[in-house]
Design a protein that fits this description.
The structure is a homodimer of 337-residue chains. Chain A is built from 17 helices and two strands. Chain A is mostly helical. Chain A has a domain of 141 residues: Farnesyl Diphosphate Synthase. Chain A has a two-stranded antiparallel sheet. In chain A, a hairpin with a 2-residue loop joins strand 1 and strand 2. Chains A, B: This is Polyprenyl synthetase family protein.
Amino acid sequence: MSLDNRAQSPAGKPHERLADYLSDDMDAVNRLIRERMASRHAPRIPEVTAHLVEAGGKRLRPMLTLAAARLCGYDGPHHIHLAATVEFIHTATLLHDDVVDESERRRGRPTANLLWDNKSSVLVGDYLFARSFQLMVEPGSLRVLDILADASATIAEGEVLQLTAAQDLRTDEAVYLQVVRGKTAALFAAAAESGAVVAKAPDDQIAALRTYGDALGISFQIVDDLLDYGGASETIGKNVGDDFREGKLTLPVIKAVARASAEERAFWERVIEKRQQREGDLEEALRLLHRHGALEETRQEALAWAARAKAAVSELPPHDLRDMLSDLSDFVVERIS
Amino acid sequence: MSLDNRAQSPAGKPHERLADYLSDDMDAVNRLIRERMASRHAPRIPEVTAHLVEAGGKRLRPMLTLAAARLCGYDGPHHIHLAATVEFIHTATLLHDDVVDESERRRGRPTANLLWDNKSSVLVGDYLFARSFQLMVEPGSLRVLDILADASATIAEGEVLQLTAAQDLRTDEAVYLQVVRGKTAALFAAAAESGAVVAKAPDDQIAALRTYGDALGISFQIVDDLLDYGGASETIGKNVGDDFREGKLTLPVIKAVARASAEERAFWERVIEKRQQREGDLEEALRLLHRHGALEETRQEALAWAARAKAAVSELPPHDLRDMLSDLSDFVVERIS
């Protein structure tokens, strides 16, 4: 099955080619996820988890683990556990994020906190987090445990930092990067690194895969934040301005604030810090972002991080999966290139 | 210092004698907790954590780990990490519990969710949980990791189970026990067991300490639930009825429901499942609890679990700490004896 797919879709999107190539492994990961999200005692747990897990999503993070392990020549069983661990950690953070952000939609469906309640989302998130640690203990690698425990702490730290930093105009690019590492890059990096570690790859390959995951994750998040202002082109698209309306400070605004006149600064204080927004403010914000070249500069940074990801995988030995990961770093910035 | 205290307070309460005996170890645990609850990037984290950690509490759980390790002859450094781990897990669950229960007071002070917000409590709880896993990886014992990861999953499962079971009259004693193991006993058991494991104690001693922690925790929680109805005596004290007013099904009510007439069952359905309570309902509930001997039977169960805890430690070799743990199992049921 997966061999056929591999042959038939050489020109598909890189994450689809990865999914085809790794389809047997991903099937095993999905089986393990379904098995471990069950609970003998509390039926609420699989209800909530199934709602989120079965909504799909690209499963990029577990695929990174599987791809890293396979391209480092691993043929044991433990990458399956680690990939499921990574997906459980990701799912747990989504559940808690939706409570924190009071979100009502995720992946086109109502969120768990809306369908059940905040209590269920908090506690089922805790359950998945605990299950992820049970899963990661099974392969018996202390080095992998170290990597994933560190990633979990960085994720939580980044989320707390965002609580205070996202509405504070003093937030600079270093703090933004720290938040982005927590929100996105830490788990991408740990996912790729742990796959290489379980494969007992040489240290330089492990480091290259970690760098790849980190840079890919950062690029991914910057693109997201840029597209929320419609990208770097002057044409304003649809679905623009969610971050702005939430008063969330992202890289484009940080750059514009750094170059703001006194009058412009007063504008940003009103709309971001005080969240007193009125008709026409989003248009004014976009005008300022363009005037200071903030969107174009943000775009350049996303491209630079994608290039760093690409350079990191180029250090690995030749392999179909290496090429797919390389293409994936292009794909992440495709919408802004 | 600790030696003087040891000599001076032979007749103190058992947890105070444990604290005196283990004071050097507990100082090291407290230093490690303060060090690890810091965050270079997110100052909100130590603010929230300090509020809870410095409010005190008896620190029973980390003391169980220290006592178990010491009485099994351990003289290495790792029991300190494990005791801090256990306290971090406990603190993380308290933060999330207060969000779930919408509590406003904890240990006589306003809760973190009241002082800051639910978001901070959820995310700082996640941070502490991740930090606890970092801490428990450091001693490098996969067996300990297994024990603590399992305990974390049991805790979360018990909390989710309680969400649905606590207002459902079909909840039986087996489900109640499962909830209590999650809420209280799982961490007591893991705390004691992991201390023995890090000391490389023989398997029968490890098992005895696990059984002790489990039985002590169950007894502790049943006493709490019993005292919420004023204990087994006919005199009604103050501060009675919190669980009743919250419509929370605990062991006394489960026993009364099991023997209820049709009319009594309708009463329980109204006050617990529908939470339609009026003047005089608590008095009626107490009358039914006494009529069916539910409070006396609950009291007997608490005593039986305490006796099981006592019997378990009696299998350990003679040691001052063993005697203190034995006394602790008496102390837990002192208020209902």
